[in-house]
Amino acid sequence: MDLEAVRTFVAVADAGQFQEAAVELAVTQQAVSKRIAALERNLGVRLFTRTPRGAQLTIDGQAFLPHARELLRVADRAVASVRAGRRPLRVDVINSRGAASGLMRDFHRAHPEIDLDVMLLFEMDTAVAAIRSGALDASFRAVGVPGRPLPPDIESVRVVDEPLQLLTGPGHALAGARSVTVAQLTGHRIWMPGIVPGTEWAAYYDDLVAEFGLTIEATGPNFGSDALLDTVADTPALATFMGEHTRLVWPADHGLRRIPVTDPTPVYPHSLLWHRDNPHPALATLRAYLAGTAADHDGTGTWTPDWTPHWTTAP
Amino acid sequence: MDLEAVRTFVAVADAGQFQEAAVELAVTQQAVSKRIAALERNLGVRLFTRTPRGAQLTIDGQAFLPHARELLRVADRAVASVRAGRRPLRVDVINSRGAASGLMRDFHRAHPEIDLDVMLLFEMDTAVAAIRSGALDASFRAVGVPGRPLPPDIESVRVVDEPLQLLTGPGHALAGARSVTVAQLTGHRIWMPGIVPGTEWAAYYDDLVAEFGLTIEATGPNFGSDALLDTVADTPALATFMGEHTRLVWPADHGLRRIPVTDPTPVYPHSLLWHRDNPHPALATLRAYLAGTAADHDGTGTWTPDWTPHWTTAP
DNA sequence: CCTTGCCACAACCAAAGGTTGTTCCAGTAG
DNA sequence: CTACTGGAACAACCTTTGGTTGTGGCAAGG
């Protein structure tokens, strides 16, 4: 299938005849005739009935037409996604099920007119480099990790604190609790196979362990969140941490429990990062939106590492 | 943009290297290299960073990738829409805002696994011919019009009665009524510029006029339903009929009123038409679904023309 | 330092896809 | 009845695209 042929097909369908479509496309009528013939040959159906006064869509052609239009739309969007200058706003949300992802969904609902490309960049260094190069517009990250200062041309603002919850299977000792304190977690095995040394979230959990003496195991290969949930559901002695806003796609009958943690509640601090000189108009809209959602912040009873940036009052 | 190049791009992104992608696509590595280079040249961005151990997506490449996948998906669906044998179920709903269209939306929600192509065929003759030729699987129509019998190989069953409502602007004499009787409508001008002589709905309205002595004007060119609604909203002396299930896309503040009609309520009878020998598996599902929705039928207090087929009890 | 694995470049060739010129066909006017 | 008009298909030709084979460059690893 050739997109040029599809474009020709739509032009002929709109014009009602080959000649006019040919003028529109700036080719000869014979070229249009050839393109349509080739498309019909590839698809194995006749798309137009040719008459001496033009071309009329067959039933097959009518069925194909909306798909053809959609195809051209999607192609245009694809090209636009990498068009220099006026491309969609590119925002990195680390992973597709976290709080940042939810924020971007809400932002999209609030501003459906803004074209977005949500991306998943694993490494913070990559994200920062991409922001500095202009290839990325913004990233949600935890910033302030000791020894890894942000370059001066990168600005950041803390936008959402995500409370961590304990996730257990039905057989876990704490499965029945409506909430647990951090002190109650000492001695329980908490398994987080996704943690990669050197990342900002590794630093976060290192601090959490150091502060409260928890037992967090990052051992074993990470087979993905499905495997993690599977294991947690089936292993009574195992639990894991999970962001409060993290969406699980999981059959309800596995009996996984989400248990709030208190005294204090560990919260994961998400900041928005962007380049000082980024001119993308939608970036300002996003920042304004996030400033609005973050207005009702109250840090009482929560914990974050020392190195996390302070909340600032919106101007 | 060339779909083959996009396909190649996705293959390379998945494989992580040109060579493996080349094997998958059954071409040489050099061909893959050329295709990617051409795609990059067309888009104006670099999609991969080439290393001696493979190819890695750039940020632009990562942004482009989901659009590329979507493009291939849509292309596949487009091809499938005209594929002989296992193409989607094609159902004609006459116009996109009527009761039949709503039924098909509900059917799609109930059976999202069934691929559908909803079509809009103006003429009944066209629809019947298409059904007989196998190019169309089903059509919603009012059947039984005198002098235009269905061919014996076309089966039909009445599936939904759509009550007609009076649509008026805020200044109309009946605008404040909670409901009106057919008798109250005599003398009021009812404007239906969409009616085309010779169609089954023209026959319906002819019978309606003959039965109750209404004043229905079909004069003037039809500039589309937007223009119709515009005129009705602004003209106190004008009203029109509209199906109860017809969805209006209209700013709420224009003050259009939908007023139920009683004593009796004129209902427009939609039947499903299909070919006796049509083997499409989804057609049976659709018929079963419609038989289910039509179960709660009660014709008391309604009117349809004499020639409309009777409701049959589902087997 | 050499081997290995992978990608880019060059030369070549077949085929796709464009152009011009022409034919065919069905309404329509004379 | 015939000639004309407008529109699509066919034929011949040519350019350009996109494939192949052959070769060179480059970084990682033994």
Secondary structure blueprint with pairings:
Two copies of one chain form a homodimer.
Chain A: H1 3-15, H2 18-25, H3 29-43, E1 48-51, E2 54-57, H4 59-80, E3 89-92, H5 99-110, E4 116-119, H6 124-133, E5 138-141, E6 154-168, E7 180-181, H7 182-185, E8 189-191, H8 200-212, E9 215-217, H9 225-234, E10 238-243, E11 257-262, E12 265-275, H10 281-293, E13 302-303
Parallel strand pairs in A: 3-4, 3-5, 7-11, 8-9, 8-10, 12-13
Antiparallel strand pairs in A: 1-2, 5-12, 6-10, 6-11, 6-12
Helix pairs in contact in A: 1-2, 1-3, 1-4, 2-3
Chain B binds a DNA duplex (30 and 30 nucleotides) through residues 4, 17-19, 27-35, 37-38, 50-55.
- The figure for the number of domains of chain A is 2
CATH architecture of the largest domain in chain A: 3-Layer(aba) Sandwich
| CATH uppermost class of the largest domain in chain A | Alpha Beta
- The residue ranges of chain A in which pLDDT falls below 50 over 5 or more consecutive positions are none
What are the key terms here?
homodimer, alpha/beta, Arc Repressor Mutant, subunit A, D-Maltodextrin-Binding Protein, domain 2, 2 domains, two-stranded antiparallel ribbon, LysR_HTH_N (chains A, B), transcription regulation (chains A, B)
